[in-house]
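Lay summary

Proteins are chains of building blocks that fold into shapes. Our project writes down both the chain and a compact code for its shape. Here are two examples, one after the other.
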Amino acid sequence: MTRQLTYAQAINEATTVAMQADPRMLCFGLGMDDPKRIFGTTIGLVEAFGRDRVFDMPTSEAGMTGIAIGASLDGTRCLMTHQRLDFFLLALDQLVNNAAKWHYMFGGQAAPVRVAIRLILGRGWGQGPTHSQSLQSWFAHVPGLKVVMPAFPADAKGLLLSGLFADSPVVFLEHRWLHNLHGPVPEGDVRVPLGWAQVVSPGTDVTIVSMSYMTVEALHAVHFLRQAGVSAELVDLRSIRPLDWETVLGSVRKTGRLVAVDTSQAMCSVASEIVATAATQCFDRLQAAPRRLTLPDHPSPTSPALAERFYPRAEDIVTAVADLLGRRIDVAPLAAARTAPHDVPGDWFKGPF
């Protein structure tokens, strides 16, 4: 049975299901019991499981990450939450040099680090260059880590459950513009396998590969392109590492054209990896040079006026596809119809939020 839940509610439900299944699991981080309960994702957890299992931590990112790693080596699965990815940079040594490498350095004989780390990323509202970064390619670069970026509520629940019961550290990246997104979510312990992409909308003329919040923008673009007579196939990565190359490259071989959309800058990005791999593995099937659509190569602006032009939107995706096809498509109606920064076309999820 499925219900309509928000992305935040789906994360909350996944946490509840996991903690009920494993009585030793711990859930901790910054702001676990603050008034807003981390954008609503931790509502009711303290009350349900007590402060010995769900608790706030002092502002010491490296310290709390070390606690999570140590607890996991003693057999305790941990869900650790940081309200912003930017703050977690203080704990990269713990993540990269300890969590990611521990199992390998002991030849697989030591216990794996069973830690899932929730990091909130992406564009804020005037929060500027130190609170708006999308650094998923940093984490995906590190062997031993798994990295996921769900776009929809059902995937948020399913991937978090898979991450919590994985025998490896998992970085769970959630875009703050997704927390209020509604969608159908199955009840119970329903997991989405790590490393499986999803073809959200099939098509034949061009492949659009996206992740996280940019999949929502890409959905708007796909529906608008359809009205213009362009059949675009949308692939939502869901997992960044492992990455589902079979689905991505299969789509590119079918359509012969690729636009890779990322929430970060182009240099050493996930979009760059997708374009490079498609160019080397599908060169004989490509009908045009692949395109990347990313952020400009400088820090995020604080000014709302500047930020409005800084972040790619659906109309930018349409323009990139049109250029790839050698066509001119007027995107003014798409830009004018925008009612919210994170809405979804009505024939995908029913009802506004």
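And here is the second example, written the same way.
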Amino acid sequence: MVFYIRELKGLRDYTMAKDYSDICARYLRLAAFLCLILSFCLTEPSRADTRTELYQATAPLADRSEAAYTDAFAAALKVVLVKITGNRAADEDAALAPLVSNARRYVQQFRAAPDNQVWVSFDGAAIDRWLAQNGQPLWGHERPSTVVWLAVQTGPQSGTVITADDVSELKSAIDAAAAARGAPLIWPNSIDLQRNHLDYSAVSSAAPSALADLGHRLGGEGTLIGHATNATLAAQVHWTYLFQDRSGEVSGAVEGVNRAADTYAGIFAVSGNLGSVEIEISGVNDLREYALVQSYLESLTFISHVSVEALSGDTVRFRLTTRGGAEPLQHALALNGRLQPIAAADNGIQRFQLRR
């Protein structure tokens, strides 16, 4: 802190506006760093393992030979690539074959798992670099949660609504498909159904938009509405999918999950060369809020660098080095919801308002 105070005294030697802005940005970053350290010490990480888990998978292990481990590492990496590229056929993509053939070099940890399998954790940063350098899509931790409303018929005019506690074959298959795509699901519990007066008949007859609104209240961004003939793997299931301004219908036991994941990947998986995008964020009233905003921007997968260009009142102009351009940025910020879009500036710079 003595160093920080001594350095601040040097500000009076600078008189030009640009120099002042540069110096302010420099010390705001230092203060932001100190604020972040304090916040990390006082709070528990809420979803700290989410990104790490994207780079973990299990695969069959034929025996304990070197060749068997090499094959298992390659199989596990294929599972990971489906999740982080958003491409459900990534395990068969010839463009990814060079990466898969060198799977062993990206392994950080592995251990025995039940049923003659091996659990593998890969170096996510190194895999990300390979994908970026080779023009492949990368879908990071910008992953919407999807609320599932699934009405299952049990009789000619009767049925039930699947809840989080259900252990049926159909729900297990849906959960497994979601895990394979890295697409988090939210199932309602019995209290949610009671509170909203929902039963089989109500879910079957409700307007999709009404169920989507209820799903948003449960913390979901996307909505899957399913109607199944039974709760087995052989069930015929018709799905309606909604996310922001997108919607669609598909049939198949787990096709609803795959359609949702395909849609999300089409929005949030980015590729291409790095470029610069400037944005302005208003409502930043103190160093803590500045630190939180900068930390959030730096956490986005497709942003590699964040710098401050200008400060004016409660407004900060950031320059972002990003892959994919402005559109993925807009979608990601809309998903988080903390930065509300407002009218663009006269110079075309995107502007946002910090929400509390």
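What can we say about the second shape? Residues 51-133 form one domain.
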